[in-house]
């Protein structure tokens, strides 16, 4: 009885919340997951709510309220001026066409009324009306949860697979790219080509999805970190099997794996940290017990030049990715190219230093990129050819470009996941 009373109080709290917004707004949209049982705050509820975060942009609104109580997570979108009946028609269509629409209630409120659906909903599991099955307790809690989980898993597996694939291809298909592999050239990589990179991509993709689902209902502890490392190692081995032991994406497995794991934490619970803040915590846990051998090139570079390398990037919460996101206004080749050059300039790349003679030449290369005229095809081609001639490559920057595009695409499909703020859009770093 106590938990039912708590749920009722949660509903009353949400109703009061809506009423406050109606003081200064004509219409309020309320989004709530349909979760059976006493615990309305299971991770599935958050995944369902976040799958509809695009509604904030759909209704051209930059103010929203994402919150939770004992009745579960909910999203409130207040609209200053709007026709309630038209908005209800639009939201009913979304409920009926979205893959997870059956598991959510999108209610429309005005100062005078709550506009309800004209058509009653059918049960998840049979053709009867949902209200009848609930009243008669026709289906068990486990049956209902299993059905919801199956559909939620399919939705997120499909959309995440597409986003990861698209992110990698956006980087891989970019040309020219200063010694990196493109559809037209192997660049500075004699042992790689475009076809091999595609094989590597296809081999590692399933493991990013595995990382996401593994982390959904987990807290970060030593056992979880060990499991994450195991999945990452399996991804590396799959890549090496596909490429005949050529390292095409080892750095990307590590970096994108951290971001996807952070995304899983962010989207499956109410966590007010940004995805980048979560990534700092995960990175620290992954790296805290790893001691780099003193005879490695990366260790010597850090000792001599204080280059933080990949560890520094991850432990900073991918600051260079955050800064580059501000430059990525679209996914046009021009904007992606500008983003890549920005990363090459700002990322201290020990891999680049390994390919040249000394730190002075390293600084000279960086200076050439700083002075590069991005509107001059001649200058770009000349610098590209110089990089190939000297066997230079910027694999670390390429990996971070993939991450930048990945976050950009998350913003397209999951509006307030990167940074939760009650009134400010994400990307307001």
What does it look like?
The protein is α+β, with helices and mostly antiparallel strands. It contains 18 helices and five strands. It has helices at residues 2-22, 43-50, 55-58, 84-97, 130-136, 141-172, 194-215, 222-243, 250-267, 275-287, 297-305, 309-315, 319-325, 333-346, 350-355, 359-371, 377-389, 395-413, and strands at residues 27-33, 65-69, 72-79, 104-109, 114-115. It has a five-stranded antiparallel beta sheet, with helices on both faces. The radius of gyration is 25 Å and the shape is elongated. The two termini are 44 Å apart.
> What's the helix count?
18
Largest sheet: 5 strands, antiparallel
* CATH superfamily grouping of the largest domain: Triphosphoribosyl-dephospho-CoA protein
Mean pLDDT: 88
- In CATH, the topology of the largest domain is named Triphosphoribosyl-dephospho-CoA protein
CATH hierarchy class name of the largest domain: Mainly Alpha
Helix content: 55-70%
Widest β-sheet, arrangement of strands:
2-3-1-4-5
Q: Which of globular, elongated, flat, extended, rod-shaped describes the shape?
A: elongated
Q: Estimate nothing, just give the exact number of structural domains.
A: 2
Give the beta-strand count.
5
* Intertermini distance: 44 Å
Segments where pLDDT lies below 50 for 5+ residues? Answer: 299-306, 420-429
CATH architecture of the largest domain: Orthogonal Bundle
**What proportion strand?**
5-15%
Oligomeric nature of the chains: single chain
Helix and strand run: HEHHEEHEEHHHHHHHHHHHHHH
Radius of gyration: 25 Å
Structural class estimated from helices and strands: alpha+beta
């Amino acid at each position: 009885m106590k938990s039912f009373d708590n749920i009722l109080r949660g509903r009353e709290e949400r109703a009061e919340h809506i009423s406050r917004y109606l003081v200064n707004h004509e219409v309020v949209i309320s989004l709530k997951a349909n979760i059976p049982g006493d615990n309305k705050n299971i991770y599935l509820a958050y995944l369902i709510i976040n799958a509809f975060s695009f509604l904030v942009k759909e209704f051209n609104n930059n103010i929203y309220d994402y919150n939770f109580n004992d009745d579960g997570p909910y999203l409130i979108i207040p609209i200053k001026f709007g026709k309630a009946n038209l908005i209800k028609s639009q939201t009913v269509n979304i409920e009926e066409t979205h893959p997870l629409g059956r598991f959510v209630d999108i209610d429309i409120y005005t100062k005078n009324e709550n506009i309800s659906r004209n058509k009653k909903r059918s049960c998840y599991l049979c053709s009867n009306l949902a209200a009848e099955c609930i009243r008669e307790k026709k289906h068990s809690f486990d049956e209902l949860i299993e059905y919801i989980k199956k559909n939620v898993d399919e939705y997120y597996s499909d959309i995440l697979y597409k986003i990861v694939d698209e992110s990698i291809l956006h980087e891989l298909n970019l040309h020219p790219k200063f010694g990196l592999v493109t559809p037209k050239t192997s660049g500075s990589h004699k042992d790689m080509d475009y076809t091999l990179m595609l094989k590597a991509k296809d081999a590692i993709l399933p493991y990013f999805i595995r990382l996401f689902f593994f982390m959904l209902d987990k807290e970060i502890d030593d056992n979880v970190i060990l499991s994450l490392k195991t999945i990452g190692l399996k991804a590396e081995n799959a890549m090496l099997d596909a490429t005949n032991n050529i390292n095409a994406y080892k750095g990307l497995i590590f970096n994108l794996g951290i971001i996807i794991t952070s995304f899983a934490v962010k989207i499956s619970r109410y966590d007010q940290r940004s995805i980048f803040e979560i990534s700092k915590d995960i990175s620290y846990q992954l790296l805290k017990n790893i001691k780099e051998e003193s005879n490695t090139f990366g260790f010597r570079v850090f000792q001599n030049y204080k280059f933080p390398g990949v560890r520094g990037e991850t432990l900073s919460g991918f600051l260079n990715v955050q800064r580059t996101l501000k430059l990525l206004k679209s996914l046009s080749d021009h904007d992606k190219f500008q983003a890549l050059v920005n990363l090459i300039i700002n990322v201290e790349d020990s891999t680049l230093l390994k390919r040249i003679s000394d730190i002075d030449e390293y600084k000279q290369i960086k200076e050439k990129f700083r002075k590069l005229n991005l509107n001059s095809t001649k200058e770009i081609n000349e610098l590209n050819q110089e990089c190939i001639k000297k066997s230079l490559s910027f694999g670390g920057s390429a990996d971070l470009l993939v991450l930048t595009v990945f976050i950009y695409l998350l913003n397209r499909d999951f509006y307030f996941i990167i940074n939760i703020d009650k009134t400010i859009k994400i990307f307001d770093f």
